[in-house]
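Supplementary Methods S3. Complex input for the pantoate-bound model.
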Amino acid sequence: MRLIEKIDDMKTIIRMKKKEGISVGLVPTMGYLHEGHMSLVRASKRDNDFTVMSIFVNPKQFGAGEDFRRYPRDMQRDAKIAEDAGVDVIFAPCADEMYPHDFKTGIKISGVTDILCGKTRVGHFDGVATVVAKLFNIISPDRSYFGQKDAQQAAVIKSMVKDLNMDVDIVTCPIVREPDGLAMSSRNVYLSADERRAAVILSKALYEAEELIKNGERKKETVRDYIMRRIMSEKTAGVEYVEILDADSFKAVDILTGKIMVALAVRFGKTRLIDNIITEVDA
Ligand code: PAF
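Predicted complex, serialized as C-alpha cells:
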C-alpha cells in the first residue's frame, strides 16, 4: 500500500491505472477508521480493481465551535488498518495542499441541505460537497462509497453528481453497528462511559419505532413522540431532531407509507450523534 500526500502524485498514479483499463473505487474518510469504513473498503474491493481511501479532516465542513481541532486523528493506526483491509493507496493531503491560500471556489447545494443536520450545521454540506468534488477530480473514481449513517450526506453527494454530470457511481452501504446497537462513528470515542451506555437508547428507540410501525401505527407524530419520549428517558440525552421522511425524496410525510426513513441527531454531553433506519411500510 502506498501513502500519497501530493495531488500531482495521486493524479499520476490514477492516469497510469486508467491507461491500463483498471477500475478505481474511492472511499472518502476523515480517518480514525472503524468497521463502518472497512465495510466501504470491502464493497469497493468487491466492485473495483483498485481502491483508494482518502483520509482528510476537511476544515471546510466544520462550523465555528465544532470539533475540527479535537477530531480524532491517528495516521499510523489508520495506515495499518487500511493496509490489512487491502486498500491500494491512501491519499492523505494536508490542508494547504487541498486549499492553498488563493482557494476561492465552493459548491453550494440547496433543498436537501436545508433540513435535518443542515438546519443546525449551516454550510456543513457545502464543505462536504466541495471536498468530495475535489477528490472526484483528483482520483476520477468509477465508484465512490458512502455510509448510510450519513444518509443526508449521501443524498447531497448524489444530487451534486447528478446536477454536475459527474461520471461516478455513488454506492451507499448499510450502517455498521456495535454489538449493542450503537452506530459506529469516529466520534464515539468522545463519549464518557456513562454517555456511551446511555447512547444505546438511539438504536433501541429506532428499532422500537420500527416495531410500532410494523404493528400498524401510521401516524408520523405518534411514532415521533414515542421516539422522543424513549430518548428523553436518558437524562444526558439532548435531542436536536427526530424526523420521519420519504427515504428517496427526503420530503416530510404525515402518514407513513412506502419507503420511509426515521432519522435523528442527539447530543450526549459535547458529542453529537446521528442515526437512522429505513423501513418499507405497506399502505
Ligand atoms: O463522511 C465523512 O467522513 C466526510 O464527510 C467525507 C465524506 C470524507 C468528506 O470529508
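The longest strand covers residues 258-268. The mean pLDDT is 98.
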